[in-house]
């Protein structure tokens, strides 16, 4: 359903992605693991053109964008198929929780306010925030703010949700509530790609693990194969740090 073919990306002379090929099936939960600076976030951002790859092709569903000659319309179409959950939540501070979730539905998807509200309330209830509709982000904990971010992504009904280190800005005691929500929606069959350092979570929730280092995919496979006995020495060394 999702295909990245020969994706390269450089920042100046620094080649951060060195020809990445990645296929994701519909309904898969993919965790991308790897050391800091290995290119995980950049790869995620290339998928919806928050970063523009230098070369390669991105396909979501039946829609392919060639990175050499992308039109604005093609980028817009690709973005509409994805939703991103950011490390630092990226909520509008002057809008309520409900307004934050409704925003994309009304402004980008041109839905009526009534319909947008109905969907948004449903999604906020799903992440356990049905009682916080009128609160402002500053009145919420980091974990609650990130759950708003997840409700906002869900409401868009995208073909894939991209999570960029969704718990790494949180105090340790708030990580669990966010991982629980992600695990709950993973069970609903939504395609998800998650950059994370939470190894226990990756092992439990994903059905496809990708290990990256220095701009390449070193190894990928089922979680039980990667965590149970990775083939590559680099993967084993990395995972050893977490056991
Ligand atoms: P990871 O998510 O694995 O930690 P990133 O994709 O964030 O890695 O970054 C990979 C490399 O690209 C790092 O060396 C980082 O400094 C560099 N990088 C990322 N974004 C930019 C940018 N906008 N400009 C310059 N360098 C960047």
Helices, by number, come to 9
- Please tally the β strands and state the result: 10
* Computed CA radius of gyration, to the nearest angstrom: 18 Å
Strand content: 25-35%
Q: What summary fits the major beta sheet?
A: 6 strands, mixed
Mean pLDDT: 95
What overall geometry do the principal axes of the alpha carbons give? globular
Q: Strands of the largest sheet, in order across it? A: 6-7-8-3-9-10
Label the structural class. Answer: alpha/beta
Helix content: 25-40%
Helix and strand string, N-terminal first?
Answer: EEEHEEHEHHHEHEHEEHH
**Gap between N and C termini:** 33 Å
Keywords: ATP-binding, Cell membrane, Membrane, Nucleotide-binding, Transport
InterPro entries: AAA+_ATPase, ABC_ATPase_HisP-typ, ABC_transporter-like_ATP-bd, ABC_transporter-like_CS, MetN_ABC_transporter-like, P-loop_NTPase
Main location: membrane
Subcellular location: Cell membrane
Structure in words:
The chain is α/β, with parallel strands linked by helices and 243 residues long. The protein is globular and about 50 Å long. The strands form 2 sheets. Strands 6-7-8-3-9-10 form a 6-stranded mixed beta sheet, with helices on both faces. A 4-stranded antiparallel beta sheet has the order 2-1-4-5, covered by helices on one side. The two termini are 33 Å apart. The protein has helices spanning 40-47, 72-80, 97-107, 113-126, 142-155, 172-186, 199-205, 223-229, 233-240; strands at residues 2-11, 14-24, 29-33, 55-60, 63-66, 82-85, 160-164, 192-195, 208-213, 216-221. The structure holds adenosine-5'-diphosphate (ADP). Keywords: ATP-binding, Cell membrane, Membrane, Nucleotide-binding, Transport.
